[in-house]
Amino acid sequence: MPGVVSYVALMATVVFGLRGWLGNPAGDEQIALPPVPNRHPYRTASEEPVTPDVFRRRVPGPPRLLVGAAICAHLWVWTLGWSGGAWPAHQLWLDLSLTVVLGVLLLRRRVRLSILPLLFVHLHHLVQSRLVSAPATKLQWGVWLLALGFGLLCFGVLVSYLLRHRLLDGGYSDAGSETRSL
């Protein structure tokens, strides 16, 4: 059923986008203002108690849901009209628009998770345009897996270095109530 991939991606775009933009309705904060006593000059002695005003403040969802919405929107437009077989060809305007949207999320909302899908999209584009060949022989698979292993090793060392310096500087600890989004 490859023909429904674009419609499922459209539904996921709507769900992730609404949840990331509007947040969880059950997670709204209720802010109650303290009651103000009725001390007006024209009131009688029998004053009735004033109920406090309650306001609802919408708490936005995690920004990583917006990354999911952007990726699903890219998948929706990319596979629109695709009915099976080889994946459709990459379109430069679509990949660049995804890069801009995820770059804005990275810079404005500090969603570091937006880098990972961007790498996969551009790596797939390089393989599909034959600038980087897909592995065919056992030797090529070995080279690819070795390069992937060293890449993951370097990434792990970098994350360990950054987290260690953040813990030593007092910027982040597991004991606090602060939650961070990838």
Summarize the topology.
Elements: H1 5-22, E1 29-32, E2 54-57, H2 64-78, H3 92-108, H4 115-128, H5 138-168
Antiparallel strand pairs: 1-2
Any overview of this molecule?
By secondary structure, the chain is mainly α. It has two domains: 112 residues, no CATH class; 38 residues. A two-stranded antiparallel ribbon has the order 1-2.
Give a short synopsis of this structure:
The protein is mainly alpha-helical and 182 residues long.
- Number of helical regions: 5
Uncertain residue ranges: 172-178
Portion of residues within helices = 40-55%
Coarse structural class: mainly alpha
Question: How many individual β-strands?
Answer: 2
Q: Could you give a short account of the major beta sheet? A: 2 strands, antiparallel
Strand content: under 5%
Give the neighbour order of strands across the main sheet.
1-2
Q: What is the ordering of alpha helices and beta strands?
A: HEEHHHH
What is the first-to-last residue Cα distance? 33 Å
What do the pLDDT scores average to?
Answer: 79
- In total, the number of domains comes to 2
Global Rg: 25 Å
- Outline: flat
What labels describe this entry?
single chain; 182 residues; mainly alpha; 2 domains; two-stranded antiparallel sheet; 52% helix
